[in-house]
């Protein structure tokens, strides 16, 4: 399928596979996200991708109070930072500077493991936004030390949506 986004106003009329593909381009492939958001796409029209992403942010935030199991499944759709095998082309490009071999890469793998042990059912999600590996690893350490799973859920939701906003901007520019 195409790596471009359809006009957001057309989302309600698109076939389900195109709707899910659009969600996958913005976020990561996630059947639980599809289940949560497809009804929204059928009932609301969005004039921009930022307005769609903000509506999705609201839906995800509501899950923090009602269904953390589904929320965890959605958050865990993001690949671990620094993983060599990443299914999403967007994630692979965003994490390029975090991948590699050597001592720092091993430290990143260890931090991912420590994070997931500290916060069972979650995966560390952050908007990398060009920041170097040491800065990201410091952020991981701080969040692990904080030890607040509710704060982690909120940070992950906001990071996912910030990533989606960035992707939307890039994908819309690429078709111009």
UniProtKB/TrEMBL annotation:
InterPro entries xref list: OHCU_decarboxylase, OHCU_decarboxylase_sf
Key words of the record: Purine metabolism
One Gene Ontology biological process: purine nucleobase metabolic process
Stretches assigned to the Oxo-4-hydroxy-4-carboxy-5-ureidoimidazoline decarboxylase domain: 13-168
Keyword Metal-binding: no
Highest taxon listed in the record's lineage: Eukaryota
UniProt KW Disulfide bond keyword: no
Name used for this protein in its record: Oxo-4-hydroxy-4-carboxy-5-ureidoimidazoline decarboxylase domain-containing protein
Organism: Sporormia fimetaria CBS 119925
């Amino acid at each position: 399928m195409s790596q471009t986004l359809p006009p957001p106003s057309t989302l309600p009329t698109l076939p389900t596979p195109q709707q899910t593909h659009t969600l996958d381009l913005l976020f990561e492939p996630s059947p639980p996200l599809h289940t949560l958001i497809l009804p929204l796409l059928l009932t609301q029209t969005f004039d921009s991708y930022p307005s769609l992403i903000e509506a999705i942010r609201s839906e995800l935030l509501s899950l923090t109070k009602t269904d953390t199991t589904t929320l965890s499944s959605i958050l865990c759709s993001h690949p671990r930072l620094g993983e060599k095998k990443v299914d999403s082309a967007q994630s692979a490009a965003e994490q390029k500077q975090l991948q590699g071999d050597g001592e720092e890469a091993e430290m990143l793998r260890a931090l991912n493991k420590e994070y997931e042990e500290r916060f069972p059912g979650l995966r560390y999600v952050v908007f990398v936004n060009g920041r170097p590996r040491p800065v990201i690893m410091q952020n991981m350490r701080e969040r692990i030390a904080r030890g607040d799973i509710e704060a982690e859920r909120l940070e992950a939701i906001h990071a996912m949506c910030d990533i989606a906003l960035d992707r939307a901007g890039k994908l819309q520019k690429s078709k111009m």
